[in-house]
Amino acid sequence: MARKKAPPAPPTPTPDRVERALGNGDVSAALDLARRLHSLTPTPEALALRKRAVAAAAGYYADRDKAVEFNRMLAEADQLDPADPAWAAARAELLARGGNLAAALTRAEALAYPAVRARVTGHAADRAVRLQTKDWLPADLHPGFDAVLAAFRHHEAGAEAAAREALEPVGLRSPFLEWKVLIRGLLAHAAGDDARAAENFARLDPTRLPARLAAPYRVAADSAYKAALPADAAAVVLAQYQKLTTGPVLDLLRGIARELGRDKPLAPAFRSAEAVLPHLKQTAPHLVPRLANCLYQAILQQGQPDDMARFRRLFGNPADDPHFHKLQAVIGEHASDPAIVHDQWRKFGDWLATNPPGWPPAVAARARAVVWARMGENARRALEQPDEAEEMFGFFAPPARRKKPKPLDPPAETCFARAAELAPDWPDASRKLFDALVAAKKPADAEAAARALLARHPADLPTLAALAGLLQGQGRAADAADLWLRALAVNPLDKPTRFRAAVVILADARRHLTQADAGAAAAVLDRHNGLLEDQLPAGLPALRAVVATKLGRPEAAAALRGRALAVPGGRLGAAYRMMVDSQLAKLKPADKRAADKLFAEELAKPPTPLEVNQLIAAYDGYHLDAVTYRGQKTHAKKVLDQVARCLAAAAPEVDFERLGELLREKEEWKPAKKLADAAAARFPRNPYFVFARAEAGFASGEREYYVEQKLRRAKQLAEAATEPRHRALLGRIDELLKDVAPRFGFLDAFFGDPW
């Protein structure tokens, strides 16, 4: 007769095996291993493991309302180390978790630790919410219980705002605080805000029921938490999440989600929506508008014309865009089709003008203003679009075949004017109207629009600056100065505003001088002396010197000339200003000849890049102020010739860089190339000069594959640079590479690096 096979020997108990069983939630195996380990090796460590196993088993039975097994575990717990106060506190918490709150509170009070009582009432709160009864809770805990259950009901109904409001009575000391945090995390998870959900779930006490309930959702929302779990535990919790979030409705919704955000037709998504819609209407009608909005937005990203009919068949007309005019306008914007955009936005605006239901009059008027502003932007972009020849031939389009785009009807300025009329308190519309009128060469209308806005918003800094610039370009220095001073009063610490105000005040003083009123010019300079000395240390004494000469004060004029020429970097600019202003002030011939001679003498000296920079700025200042004088054009060449003369100067790299930036702003590409070539040879590790040479070459029509090689070299230098200003060049380099590299990248193999 065959012997029966002996049962396998139980595994040898080790701390690792106990820990592994606890981590996997196998409390029975953990308890058996911990008991045998403690029996074989009665050490403090083994005792601590057995306590944890007993507590885990007691908690497991308490949460499943298995009173007999729970009481047996609690009796065993009472026999283990009864003198340890921490273990006594843990047993009190277990009593509350098992439903014996009175005994738990008695033990907590005997320990005289307030924290123990708080944890005991916390476990009692967990049991009350789990069983949905407050009958055995103290009366002072009833409001917190009611708030949590009300919040759950609101969340289930999709009323998120009501759920948050219901939680307001739960304070920081309430035993129901954990439930408040849990619900907030669930609300965030339902809204797709996984970061906020993970933040709330991470705040939960891992020993409390809310943390265990949140675990499936946390593992889906918090990748760091999932990675920190043992592989087996993570798989179990993830399976719980899948089970909690599966069902026919969810499967269909996930099927829709899989079709969205992809370069695929939407027909399968609409078929899934048709299948899920009856279920949603019965079980979660509040989700129907959300689903409709998702598919509406999906049409914008990946839809076809037929999808609008599919949408209308399932959901009817969208309440806020019943004829899909808005949708088609936005699609037209993405497709760069200005004609369609103009037509569809106009139709949408006409619909808004009918006072549709759900649109308060003020909101509808503002929406119409936004529509007109979008039309204005569309009309402006239409004038910048390449014509068909450029679209076809691109860079190689013959100039004779390029045509100026035809303006849309209505043009940009008309659209922005309508927007400003509908929303007079919306500054953006009036600012865009101003820009459009300036572009349309209607300065009087632009000024009127800006002043109308300033009448309503007197401290609007962008409008103050824009109007001041317009008036300054018209030679109206006094009016421009008034606007800049108003801007300076609003923002007195802004450096660009201070500088622009000083420049136009100087122009106003010069205007008085040219009108033979040297006294008025001196008064203007005296009134703003502090600002001018701070911002124009060379320009102020230069003009004062001419004023003093005009007033017959030669000694004062000589002293002022010396001050102006002594300003670091201001020598050439000051000499140039005094020469020109002497002519404009109609000084005596001898005085004018002296000013001409002074400029010639200063010009003959070797310049520095800073002096050339200031000279060019001084020359440009007269154009900015709309001032003309005899010999102005011939001076342009003399001024720019100084760029080549300063290249050997012993000056810092940054001074050459600033001069290069000024030449770039002026689009003076020929001297910019000379500067970049010479400076790149002197400073071979400086990426700016290589980039500046590439930019100047590209702008002046050099072969683009050579330009690309320079840009690649500049990028290498910028990436290796330690100066922040050189690192900051990377964005500009990449932008220019986008224009150069795509068309000529295939030529790299045929040409070497010219640098």
Fraction of residues in β-strands:
under 5%
Helix content: over 70%
Oligomer: single chain
Unreliable sequence segments: 388-397, 743-755
Task: Kindly provide the radius of gyration, computed on alpha-carbon positions and rounded to a whole number of angstroms.
Answer: 40 Å
Strands, total number? 0
> Given the helix and strand composition, which structural class is it?
mainly alpha
End-to-end Cα distance, whole Å, is 96 Å
What shape does the CA trace take? Answer: elongated
Please give the count of helices: 42
The biggest sheet amounts to: none
Report the mean per-residue pLDDT as an integer: 86
Task: Write a concise keyword list for the protein shown above.
42 helices
Written overview of the protein:
Among the domains are: 141-244; 674-750. The chain contains 42 helices and no strands. It is elongated. It starts with 14 loop residues before the first helix and ends in an 11-residue tail after the last helix. Mean pLDDT is 86; it is low at 388-397 and 743-755.
